[in-house]
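User: I'm preparing a small set of examples for a lab meeting where we compare how different chains pack in three dimensions. I only have the primary sequence for this one, and I'd like the structure in token form so I can line it up with the others. Please keep the answer compact; I'll paste it straight into my notes.
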Amino acid sequence: MSGGTYKLIELVGTSKESFEDAVNNAVKEAANTIKYLSWLEVVEQRGHITDGKVSEYQVKVKLSFKIQR
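Assistant: Understood. Below is the structure token output for the 69-residue chain.
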């Protein structure tokens, strides 16, 4: 981040496929309504287990976007 002011938000993304897909899903959804997204940080990873198998991947991500005048 160089210059300017940035807002930081926290989201939880989910996927039935992978942690990477969960991150991409969170970013994709945020990009539908937030302009100027600039970076992300994966804060936490977790999942749901059903019948001895991972059934859902979850990630907590922090996303940053630049505040525009």
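A couple of notes for your slides: The helical segments are 19-31. The beta strands are 6-15, 37-50, 53-66.

User: Perfect, thanks.
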